[in-house]
Amino acid sequence: MSEPGPPGERPNGAPPGPGYGPQQPYQQFSQYPPWQPPVPPKRTSPAAVVLITGSVVVVIVMALAFLAWGYPGFLRDDDRASAGPASSSPTFTTPTTTAGAPSAAYTVPTIGPARMPKRSKPLADPVTCAFTPDPTSPAPKKVAPPADGPASSSGTVPVRLATSAGDIGLTLDRALAPCTVVNFVSLVQQRFYDGTSCHRLSVTSGLQMLQCGDPVGDGTGGPGYSIRDELFPELTYGRGILAMAKTAQPDSGGSQFFLVFGDVEISPEYTVFGSIDDAGLAVLDKVARGGIDPSRPGIGDGSGPPKIPVTFTQVTTP
């Protein structure tokens, strides 16, 4: 009988089987990683919190702004529904001044009336006038516009403004602005100006005038139609000049006009159509010395309603 061979040797030279071979030491395997103590979460710095919060606020504000201005009715009224007289009815005015308050006192000029401007090239005689309906201008006093057609460009027309402050005499000059004269005479004959008041006085240097002719009384009213500008390069303004007011748009005059009693430095964009007599200038000087009524609103340029009221009791022409 043979002796068993040494450990690991197969009997009779047979190939080793699964149970044969050197004994390996026992090893323990696991599918889980070794346990580690938990790591506390990182704390967010105050700067990061502020940055994140600010970003969120900016996004919200931008979204609200987009909705507010992109969609009328969300946070604001529809512009078309909320537009008031200032937008739908532009103010008829002369240029504004940069002063924030009226001059402390008005000094009567020592010089006489300014020289009237004159066209270097006379107009044709007659000229053709046209008057355009203006539904955007409040017209509480209904009048008919003058008929379109020919108008004389020669001669003058006297007008008397009987006012609560005294009488003011005017001389309308057809050679300067024939269609404007036709319009003014038509309004006088229809008693459009009777009962209206001059709503704007300016005594600031560079714009010393009294503005009148608005049936509404706030600078927005007119006769319900507009007239064309009648301008020429030689236009100048000064004491004793009568000129038409208008909006910022050309050919937008109607019934409002201004009476110049002092220094006026404006561009030649306002139709000059006549002059003021000495007695009328004395009345205007008295009104100017009275100053502006601080209890009534102006337009923010130092001008405003006169403290001495100027209401037209009757305006007449032969």
How would you sum up this structure, described in words?
It is a single chain. By secondary structure, this protein is an alpha+beta fold. It folds into two domains: 45-82; 92-316, Cyclophilin-like (Cyclophilin, Beta Barrel). The protein is built from five helices and twelve strands. It has helices at residues 46-70, 79-82, 85-88, 178-189, 278-290, and strands at 127-129, 131-133, 149-151, 156-163, 166-173, 200-204, 207-212, 225-227, 241-244, 257-264, 272-276, 312-316. It has an eight-stranded antiparallel β-sheet, with helices on one face. It is elongated.
Explain briefly what this protein structure is:
The chain contains five helices and twelve strands. The chain has helices at residues 46-70, 79-82, 85-88, 178-189, 278-290; strands spanning 127-129, 131-133, 149-151, 156-163, 166-173, 200-204, 207-212, 225-227, 241-244, 257-264, 272-276, 312-316. Strands 6-7-10-9-11-5-4-12 form an eight-stranded antiparallel sheet, with helices on one face. A two-stranded antiparallel ribbon has the order 1-3. A two-stranded antiparallel sheet has the order 2-8.
List keywords for this structure.
disordered N terminus, Cyclophilin, two-stranded antiparallel sheet, eight-stranded antiparallel β-sheet, alpha+beta, 318 residues, 12 strands, 5 helices
